Amino acid sequence: MLWSMFWVNFLGTIYGYIWYGKQLEFTAQKLSFAYLPFVPDSPTASLFFIGTLVYLLVDSYKGTQNPKTSWFRGFVEVFGVITSFKYGIWAVSMIWAAAYQGDGVSWQDWMLTISHLGMAAEAILYVSLYTYRKGAILAVASWAFANDYMDYGVGVFPWLPKSLWDELPGVAAFTIALSIISIIVSILLMKARINLQKQQV
Fold first, then answer.
1. What is the maximum span of the chain, computed from C-alpha positions, in angstroms?
2. Given this model, what pLDDT does residue 199 score?
């Protein structure tokens, strides 16, 4: 299961960065090279989830029941949780908001819908095996809001269908709300994990 998810996310991450290729090029040439880390939202989310899977695979090969915690591992885990949940829901919402506005729905839209719903779901799949704590959540929350500012304050948000261009303020508000919800989800998952560990002792 872990290896299957690893390869699905690995291939999806490569596809995601390719999908953002033109926007990355535009950002580097027309805006600033320094803005590039804020451009590819979904593939960066899946990249960090791959990092989480690597930790879990190492634990499984070692037969580790209670893996050693570290701030860096916790940061990787909760980055994957918050951003995968957030952008999984965000991408699906944008696809179908555009469809509601009259855009056609292609096979690629269905593929992206299924894959991004999978992103959101997989973020909570291994709740009992995560190790992250409050400090890591705070760090990733800061990144999430900084990314929202860069997206809608500076203008490096993922390119939207034309039908949603006049809805940009609403899209920005929705994205920020998703950041808040995703952070709350990560906190609830942490509390659920801690309670589960206490019951097992």
1. 56
2. 79
